[in-house]
Amino acid sequence: MSMGAYDEDEHERREAKNNSVEVSDDDTRTTYEGSVEFDSGDSTEELLDKFQQIQSN
Question: What is the value of pTM for the model shown?
Answer without folding.
Answer: 0.30
